[in-house]
Amino acid sequence: MEFLYDTNRFYYDDENGKNLAEITMSTVDDDTIIIDHTWVDNSLRGQGIAAQLVKQVVDFARQSNKLIMPLCPFAKEEFSKNEDYEDVLKK
């Protein structure tokens, strides 16, 4: 699955342009972004799409030299169980 990037979000649309998954983020300052929302359509749930979206933001943060504050409950859970994300976690 290929995710698209638009200002402050990664998302997935079907071939008809219907949005089926997204993760949104906002900028706190030059060094920090907040993950504030993760959503996956019922038709795609249970396939690990939300976790893939969190990883997209993590990769984005690494490339941009930013830290992440995961305020979204799903993202917060992903960070708590994935030690590989420690390098971008704002403490």
UniProtKB/TrEMBL annotation:
GO terms for molecular function: acyltransferase activity, transferring groups other than amino-acyl groups. CDD domains: NAT_SF. InterPro entries: Acyl_CoA_acyltransferase, Gcn5-rel_NAT, GNAT_dom, GNAT_YJDJ. Pfam families: Acetyltransf_CG. Residues 1-91, 2-90 form the N-acetyltransferase domain. SUPFAM superfamilies: Acyl-CoA N-acyltransferases (Nat) (SSF55729). Coiled coil: none annotated. Keywords: Transferase. This is GNAT family N-acetyltransferase. It comes from Kurthia sibirica.
